[in-house]
Design goal:
heterodimer; A: 353 residues; mainly alpha; 70% helix; disordered C terminus; B: 317 residues; alpha/beta; Rossmann fold; 2 domains; six-stranded parallel beta sheet; six-stranded mixed beta sheet; 12 strands; cell membrane (chain A); ABC_transp_permease (chain A); transmembrane transporter activity (chain A)
Chain lengths: 353, 317
């Protein structure tokens, strides 16, 4: 039996195991500071509970990290997503304020996000500017563009359809949760049930060889930035709809960093190559669970960033290759119930790679 | 639209002196468009100047001190009668203020103070952030009238001076009233989105029915929190009393709708007292006090919030 070196992983479960464990620990921390954390009831026509909040408040970062995972898999990075959120929110708000329907507003916002993504893709794939610099342009300029759209104020609206995208519910479940779950499933399906995922990984591992092998890397690169822009636009619409207003100064501020962090916590390498969107989404939930611990702990806000930094440092240390090696060595030196040569050989081969 | 007028205004300010027929020419160096309040301050300053027949030369610094210094130098070169500055940072003003002093042009600081010798400027017109918090606290003391009240607090950006001062002021306001207790206090970063998120966690951690009042360091956070309270199935303004600071138009709208109880105004009219002081000084040499405190007016449902909203909504907030 030969094992494929790229393409679908033999076991998705094994891949996301570390993230599931960390998420469980983060949720346990929540229970430790607030015993009723898992309590969910039905109030005012919607599910009401801390767990729902984690899923709901994690939506923007979850949406961003879907696109970000693909971009990072190509060895790129997209710093502009926070600013694109602000632009998309502003465009959506301006469209409904102008009297159009929420559908038009959503389309306009997606169009704006798509254009931003194409711009980034053009800079990276065609002009060959390094991704971190190329997307920095829009990160800095984007918020200015958003302010031009909102004319420097918080543009409020009361279009029920648009508000539903951020603050509404479908069958009691807050809409943002359904949106990020659906988009996550759609994109995962799209890249894993086709060769797309493998082609994206190939670009990230070695772009030149992938091109020599016949992959149209330029088009694919533009496409991943386009997807990232669209994800950011959706996140921006949700954030604006949630507060019934487009806040160009603050919408999505620093969220690009949270999105990158989610991808990293998801065990994806910033050097590109293999990726797992599911793991990134778990990373986003881990970050939101940590935010939830901080809010529920009742500690003074001066501690917020320190606690977050310490927890994330802990997560990254546990995930580091060196510590991973130690854990493996510890396991290997322990008593083995059934000395099976086949089981032993495989990890050794992996460690040697 | 705003951008164009800003460009135009800066072009006028930096361009050569045109002989205007106005009695008095005042230069105004504004920080830039960092918030709705700042936009309103610019609008009100222009209105106040127009009301007095003053020719106002406006310069937008785009959040950069070097632009402000350039603008002040150009005002000096144009020989204006006085200069208004909303300083973007606290330090680094000595040299340019000395140049203004040498040219005998009085400078008035708006909204923020600076670390420089007091003799370098005529006066500073600012609000008292601690006082604002105290007014909010005292309002709640009167409102509760001895009844027990568990308060949650939405702080501004951690470490910022408005957050520190408004927190201290509120604590002073409720000091000595054992019936009032702040049970949770967390930062909402002065934004609607964070205000809503943090209020959601307050409602769960304490239980909505156990919270009697919310004190937010600005109106934006309160507006976000109102939505969170509604989504939790409670009535903001009734089940949970809400007091915040700034008096932005949306706060008046919320009070008019009965969803908020009180707001304390951070007036955008810093220019009115500043121009009064300048006019008096130029006319008779009357030295104003080094600090002019603006009024921190309390607005409640007793005011005609609908009318105030309509008046304020076009100021650029």
């Amino acid at each position: 039996m030969t094992q494929p070196t790229v393409g679908p992983r033999p076991s998705v479960f094994k891949r996301i195991m570390p993230q599931l464990v960390i998420l469980a620990v983060a949720l346990a921390l929540n229970v430790a500071v607030f015993p009723e954390f898992f309590h969910i009831d039905f109030r005012n026509g919607r599910l009401f509970g801390n767990l729902i909040d984690v899923l709901n408040r994690g939506a923007p970062v979850a949406l961003l990290c879907i696109g970000m995972t693909l971009v990072i898999a190509t060895k790129g990075i997209d710093l502009s997503v926070g600013a694109v959120m602000a632009i998309a929110g502003a465009v959506a708000a301006a469209t409904v304020v102008d009297g159009h329907s929420w559908g038009t507003a959503l389309l306009a916002a997606l169009l704006a996000g798509g254009l931003c993504g194409l711009w980034n893709g053009f800079l990276v794939a065609v002009l060959r500017i390094q991704p971190i610099v190329a997307t920095l342009v829009l990160m800095v300029a984007g918020r200015g563009i958003a302010q031009l759209v909102t004319e420097g104020k918080i543009l409020t609206f009361d279009n029920a359809g648009l508000i539903n995208l951020g603050a509404g519910t479908i069958a009691g479940v807050p809409t943002p949760i359904l949106i990020w779950l659906a988009l996550g499933a759609l994109v995962t399906f799209g890249v894993r049930r086709t060769a797309l995922g493998m082609l994206i990984e190939a670009i990230g591992i070695n772009e030149r060889s992938s091109r020599l092998a016949g992959i149209n890397s330029r088009v694919l690169l533009v496409c991943v930035y386009l997807v990232s822009g669209l994800c950011a636009a959706l996140a921006g619409v949700i954030v604006a709809a949630d507060i019934k207003g487009a806040d160009a100064n603050n919408a999505g501020l620093w969220l690009e960093l949270d999105a990158i962090l989610a991808v990293v916590i998801g065990g994806n390498s910033l050097l590109g190559g293999r990726f797992s969107i599911v793991a990134s989404l778990l990373g986003a939930l881990i970050i939101q669970s940590i935010n939830s611990v901080i809010l529920l702990s009742g500690l003074p806000p001066e501690f917020n960033l320190v606690i977050k930094a310490l927890l994330i440092l802990g997560i990254l240390v546990i995930q580091s290759p060196r510590i991973g090696n130690y854990i493996y060595m510890l396991r290997a030196s322990g008593p083995q119930p059934q000395p099976d040569p086949l089981v032993r050989q495989r990890p050794e081969k992996e460690a040697a790679q | 639209m705003t951008f164009k007028t800003t460009l135009l205004a800066s072009a006028i300010a930096i361009g050569p002196v045109a002989a205007f027929a106005a009695d008095m020419t005042i230069g105004f160096s504004q920080i830039g468009s960092e918030s709705g309040w700042r936009a309103a301050e610019t609008t009100v300053t222009k209105q106040e100047a127009e009301k007095r027949g003053i020719d106002l030369k406006f310069a937008d610094a785009q959040q950069k001190q070097e632009n402000q210094i350039k603008a002040i130098r150009s005002f000096i070169a144009q020989g204006v009668d006085g200069i208004l500055v909303a300083p973007v940072v606290a330090t680094g003003w000595d040299e340019v203020l000395e140049e203004a002093a040498d040219a005998e042009i009085p400078v008035v600081l708006l909204d923020r103070t600076i670390d420089a010798d007091e003799s370098l400027y005529l006066t500073a017109v600012t609000s008292d952030l601690v006082h604002e918090g105290r007014v909010a606290g005292e309002w709640l003391v009167n409102e509760m009238n001895g009844a027990d009240c568990r308060i949650v607090e939405l702080q501004g950006t951690t470490g910022s001076s408005p957050a520190i001062d408004r927190k201290n002021g509120f604590e002073q306001g409720i000091a000595g009233h054992g019936n009032l207790e702040i049970v949770r206090s967390q930062t909402g970063d002065f934004t609607r989105a964070q205000g809503k998120v943090v209020m959601e966690s307050f409602l769960k951690a304490e239980g909505g029915e156990n919270i009697c009042a919310l004190y937010a360091h600005n109106d934006d956070m309160a507006v976000g929190a109102i939505q969170a309270i509604k989504e939790a199935g409670l009535k903001p303004g009734e089940d949970i009393k809400i007091v915040a600071i700034d008096a932005v138009p949306d706060a008046h709208k919320a009070i008019a709708a009965g969803e908020m109880n009180a707001t304390i105004e951070l007036t955008p009219n810093m220019a009115g007292p500043a121009l009064d002081a300048l006019e008096a000084y130029l006319a008779s040499g009357a030295m104003p006090a080094k600090w002019i405190q603006t009024e921190s007016k309390l607005f409640t449902s007793a005011d005609d919030n609908e009318a105030i909203f309509n008046m304020k909504k076009d100021l650029g907030y």
